Amino acid sequence: MAEVLSKTNLVSSSWLHNRQRQSISFFPKSCKFNNKSPASCSLKLKSKASSFSFSSNSGFYGKSVVLQQDEAMPRRGISLSRASVTSSQTTLRIGKAQKWWEKGLQPNMKEVNSAQDLVDSLLNAGDKLVVVDFFSPGCGGCRALHPKICQFAEMNPDVEFLQVNYEVHKSMCYSLNVHVLPFFRFYRGAHGRLCSFSCTNATIKKFKDALTKHTTDRCSIAPTKGLEEKELLALSANKDLNFSYTPKPVEFEPVPAEPVSVPQLEPSHSTKESISTKTLMFPRVSEDKTLVASGR
């Protein structure tokens, strides 16, 4: 029993040394000892100091001490409630930053994903006016002009605006001969490409004039043209693009033959004289023959 008390004194002394930091004390919950099974003692954690109670017949006898933590009593300053952790996670979430070319987009504005998407968008537009906007994320002029382009798209809902990111589709822009930014191309119906130009925020009047000129009502009977034939061939020849194009066979229309009128040549004065002399000589020969015949 003295040995047991000495060991428990060591435990209590270590507890007193760390009491200010942990505020947790140990005391044995139950110690059992009998002749059949080895002695065992279990200790329970509590937030407050308590007295030790042992049975008179129990002892450690150099055996291991089993420590059990009471989960119903969380340790101070360490465990947090689930509600507080959840709230802190929700408040620390930061939304994804929106890119400048994605701000202010209208329903009639669309970003082109590939060369095939550009070709199909132009062909499916019909008689609508299509404005292709070539831009780059690192272009300061493109960024300054973007809010005004969004305003034009809002004021002209019948016009379709296609955005082509130069950094993503650099190879396609090379095939379309786009070498300056910002750059715009206007397409419509059977007319195909109407105009192409580059403008900045300072020369925005050029864009306004082109938009006013080509938004007039018109109807084309022929099918939609879209990109030009040489542009389609350049896209299909580019190995970096997954685009294929079969050239249309050239049909030769038969040209009706026009009647050729041959001018009638009038006889000259010399020909008239020769004809007249010939016609006058023949009667004389005939008269000589008649006279010879009668002389016989």
Automatic annotation (TrEMBL):
Location of the Thioredoxin domain: 78-216
Residue span of region Disordered: 257-278
Transmembrane helix is among the record's keywords: no
Domain of life: Eukaryota
Entry annotated with the keyword Transport: yes
InterPro entries the record matches: Thioredoxin-like_sf, Thioredoxin_domain
UniProt KW keywords: Disulfide bond, Electron transport, Redox-active center, Transport
Gene Ontology cellular component list: chloroplast
Cross-referenced Pfam families: Thioredoxin (PF00085)
BP terms from Gene Ontology: cell redox homeostasis
Listed SUPFAM superfamilies: Thioredoxin-like (SSF52833)
UniProt similarity note: Belongs to the thioredoxin family.
Name of this protein: Thioredoxin domain-containing protein
Native species: Ziziphus jujuba var. spinosa
